[in-house]
Amino acid sequence: MSTDTRPADRTGRTDGTRLGVVALTGVVVGSMVGAGIFSIPQNMAAGPAAPGALLVGWAVTGVGMLALALTFQFLGRRAADTHGGLYGYARDGFGPMPATLVAWGYWISAWLGDLAYLVLIFSTLGLFWEVFGDGTTWVSTLGGTVVLWGYAALLLRGVRDASAVNVVVTVAKLVPILVFLVVGVMAFDPAVFTVDLWGRQEDLGPVFDQVRAMMLVTVWAFLGIEGATVFARRARRDGDVGRATVMGFALVLTLLVAVNLLAAGILTRPELADLQDPSLAGVLEAVVGRWGAVLISVGLLVSVGGAFLAWQLLCAEILASTARAGGLPRMLGEEPRPGVPRRAILLTTAVLQVALVWAHFRGAAYYDVILMSGSMMLVPYLVSSLYALRLAARGGGGGGTAVVFTGVSTVYALWLLYAGGLSYLLMSSVFYAVGLVAHAWTRREQGRPVLRGWEVALAAGIVVAAGWAAVGLLTGGLQV
């Protein structure tokens, strides 16, 4: 049940906080273009993946992610609640408990991504000033705290203000990437690209294994493709959400493929694998000298800063919109000022603060955190795809074409679960078990039964998996 009593337009969106297609596209691009594109050359090469496997892997990823983007566009037009986002899709397709878990998993993924960004920001500064180290020193933790609460202050000014800043930052951070693309086209050497096209000289193994390894990296690179759906309630027009999702996907895919393939034609795979992240800096430095590395490093800081803002926006809106829809405690949906879910913002910031201190003592690496963040998004992607496939199969619009791309999206989501591996799936169950507590709190607040029918079996399965994960962590049998 919504607690929002402000005047609404005929589409159900509250007045004064509506976003256009440009702002929504900025959210999508800002969410996806973070650190991944700056480290993609080394990550793919270290997979390992030879240039030929890159071509195959990007083709598979392009098809799968395009199907996922089209699925979100379809849901934005045809779902029973086009303004409900991932929570609304799961609720209408599978009921209240799975819906709350989907929103919860999405929120966990978002703030884990923010944690990775904070660590990476100060790790990058550590390349120039040793005091910041790998991004987890006390100085870095204190710096991260200042950044974290500074962004919280920006968000407390209003979602529209922060969205406008995100559009500006998104444009600014693309400049170093465009410089690399221009230089890369001129420096690209076909002989370097084809010297060991399929990795046979290095004995990298079957192409299938190489493709599977690189796809684990692309999961993180494309997180945020659903970003515009979170702000569906604030969109000026229903169609803007779908257009922003597809436009953002097309732009990011083009940039990722171009950067990866051009780098593979400038340095050989072993040379790329030995680079320090942000590896794009090393590639550009090999062509133009030291200034290229500095440019990319500055671009990375701007990019990660913008992505951090985008994901903070998503975190707050995930909690607030879910609470207003009755999926989380109602206090998280309250807005003392229009467009400012204060408690959702403060809760996210507080959780991130604790996680930041934990990262200092744990020495958590950027790569480990992003894999966990990606793992938490796989279930929301699968549930959304299944709901879309059911709608399309029942004649919900789009005809046979909709059945095809929602079917491909579902298969691709299952493939990502397989690629992620059992360890991360078990760790995800620990977070989802905490989500069950949030669900129980909400249902009791509403005076409704906590679980219904098959939800009991699902909850039991999550608790068992979480227990398995806990035992594995304590005994050392589970490594993540």
Automatic annotation (TrEMBL):
It is found in: Cell membrane. It is a multi-pass membrane protein. InterPro entries: AA/rel_permease1 (IPR002293), Amino_acid_antiprt (IPR004754), APC_superfamily (IPR050367). Its main location: membrane. The chain crosses the membrane at residues 21-40, 52-75, 104-129, 135-156, 168-193, 213-232, 244-268, 288-319, 340-359, 365-389, 401-418, 424-442, 454-474. The keyword Transmembrane applies. Keywords: Amino-acid transport, Cell membrane, Membrane, Transmembrane, Transmembrane helix, Transport. Belongs to the amino acid-polyamine-organocation (APC) superfamily. Basic amino acid/polyamine antiporter (APA) (TC 2.A.3.2) family. This is Basic amino acid/polyamine antiporter. The lineage of its organism: Bacteria, Bacillati, Actinomycetota, Actinomycetes, Micrococcales.
